[in-house]
Amino acid sequence: MSVRALLLSNPTRGRWSVTSTRLGQPNRKRRAFLRHQATARASPSIGAYPASAAGLSQGNRERGHQEPEDTSHALRTILFNRDQIFLPTIPSVVDNDKEGNNDHDMSDGDQLTDLGRIDLTIHTHKNVAQSGVLSITYDESDRQGVGGVGAEGGQQRESATSTETEYGNWRSPITSKMAVEEENTVVEPPHLDPITGYVLWCEELDGRGVVFHYDPENGEVVRWTPYNYDVRTRVHEYGGGTFTVHNNTLFFSNGLDGAIYRQEGPQGTPTRLTNTKNRRYADGTYNEKLNTLFYVVEDHGEGKGDGENGVVMVDASTGREKVLISHADFFASPRVSQDGKKLVWVQWNLPNMPWDENRMFVAQLRNGELAIIKFFQHGSMMMPSFDQNDELFYVHDSTGWWNLYRVTRRGFENNLTPETQEVGWPVWRLGRQAYDINPRLGAREAVVICGHDLTVVDLASLKRRVIKTGYNTYSLGVAYSLTGQKAYVVAGDGVRSSRLVEVEMATGLTREVRGDQPPTPPVDVAYLSPPTLIQFPTTQADFAYGYLYMPKNPDFHAPTGSKPPLVVRVHGGPTAAALPVLNLRYQFLTSRGFAILDVDYRGSSGYGKLYRNKLNEMWGVYDVEDVLAGASHLVEQRLVDKAKLGVEGRSVAAYTALSALTIPGSIFTAGASYWGVSDPEMLATMNTSKLKRHYLEALIGNLDRHKDRYVTRSPLRNHQRLHVPVIFFHCSEDKLVPPDQAKGLYDLLKSKGLPTAFMLFPGEGHGLISSENEAKALEAEFFFFTQVFNITAADAISDVKINNLELWRNERMNGKWRKMEEKWKNKQQVEETE
């Protein structure tokens, strides 16, 4: 249930006791008294509790940066779930006067003050009424200074029972096994069956896609997919859009043979519908009027090379197929009007990626043929659909941000979300849908995932309101219930991983809908460090962003004046973004005393088109500079230890991480590379997927014309600049990035006398499938960082062999290593001058 606190800032630090007071009768007589210890950050977070990125000017906004929402006098909601209590991060605390009157709204003169972390004790009944207040008391005797973002040292608040221990040596209940098993298992957005009212979605279970349905009437969750099927597709290699449903009949792509199957009810046996060999299907939709399915099809038959794409009609009863159009390189989102007379789709051609340039077409459907085809303006368009009134909706970035548009039957166009927030995500995978139209007759409203908000748009007045759910990150898609009174969305936040969530549209109340997923969070939230969005200066007088996770463990605190080690994480893509939801791999480190910065470097999505395009021809430059700038910023703010700075990346993200270790002037003192790319020319010459065939040309440039860029930006070819310890993880069967490159860098570091390690996982491909191997890798990374940072960690246990460790430590102690390092750097400068 939601309880609203009227919060004011106060420069005084201390302990606050917060108690919920019931204003009405609980729904049940039974009142189970719960007590929950939580921690609130004074620094605001993103989403429903927007991160305040200080210093954003109008000029920055015009350059494509997201203006932070003004939080100076906004109510903040603490969300009480029925069985669990979650306390989102709060941007201020109450202004406590001598009389204890704290129940007034913020005024214009009130300012947010960085208070670090404040311990809150919350008491509530299990079935608390829908309205309530918080009585707040202040203990004047507890005046300890607290750390946090903006406080020197970044220490967590010292509790009465915590033990003083150096950062990195904190014991944690979050094990490596727990960290790798806690995954975001929802892989497809929710779909509404318009006849039964069931809500269906797909989860990843034991390496297979499995569909479940949820019945809103009785709360029952039912599995559909038999154990010998895999709901999956490989269209564009990334897949997505694996199933559609109508009248308790499921149509899905089977990853084992690529065909479309039809399944009548959850207990029904799937029957094969399509029989054309070597075809893949994705992003399907069903039209009841025509009894026909419309799919993106990818034909890998004889003479088709790496696949011929198009839009195909499939008879839902017989499986007979007819390709409607196939003249472009790629297609997405074929959607049909309810009367079966119009078809809309998106298409694009190489060398473009879908977020660079594409076109949206609308055509008349006449007896299975396309007629009177019209196309819309250029740009990046996606997710088109028709509502029950035959009005067209789609997402377009013509304003510099992906906004939702509507085209009425009279041809008028409305921007329904004219904010500087993004609707939707880069189209790596098909089938995502960031909005839905209320199916209830006469409702005239849409629910939209707009940035980090869940927004409702009145289609008559165009007014918008944000649904306060307590979550701050929404992904994959959203769907209304049959009545329009609820919506289903994949949501998460700093203490909850992404899950399918039911939202009451009138109140914002939520409940998790679970298939085979474990409840979240799996550990006490007191051990979880919620992310804070930060903005920091970088090169070219620009700004970049990142999510900062500070160390957090109620059982330990660090000695006064000490600072934590930092690991900078690099997301892949690179056209993608960090996801600020619960990631137990991160919490594995933060609960042991490490800080983590998850960087959204220039080129990341979610900050507008201009920011997204800044990486064009600058990959290996701007992303690397931003990773360095983020670490430098935290050092300058005296939040982390400048002698203990690590950087880590996987696959193409490891390219950025390794580049950050070899760039002149690097401040990083250690690194970790997971099956990492160390030479971009290798990527340019390898046989990649059709979708990414020209991606590298956009990111760096044409290899023939700009080979110098590929050389100067290659960590492998600039290995002489590598002077810090690195651990390498690779897989024996990796065909995408052969282990030889990593092994070469490992041998080089070993010959230099630097601490280094190389873990090869037999039988694994590009990335680890085995959770046991994932756990070993996580333990080895933590062990490696603690050893090279000279941290005595009680639970850092791994059998990984670190070469040269003791010799390197001894040489560092007597200063010999510093002389060798200077000699290498001088030699490097001479070589670069020549």
Task: Tell me what you see in this structure.
This protein has 834 residues and is of the alpha+beta class. The chain has three domains: 1-146, no CATH class; 187-434, Neuraminidase; 529-803, Rossmann fold. The protein is built from 13 helices and 45 strands. The strands form eleven sheets. An eight-stranded mixed sheet has the order 37-38-41-40-42-43-44-45, sandwiched between helices. It starts with a strand and ends with a helix.
* CATH class descriptor name of the largest domain: Alpha Beta
Quickly give the CATH architecture of the largest domain. Answer: 3-Layer(aba) Sandwich
The overall strand count is: 45
Give me the secondary-structure category: alpha+beta
Q: What name does CATH use for the topology of the largest domain? A: Rossmann fold
- Average pLDDT rating: 81
N-end to C-end Cα span: 69 Å
Q: What share of residues is helical?
A: 10-25%
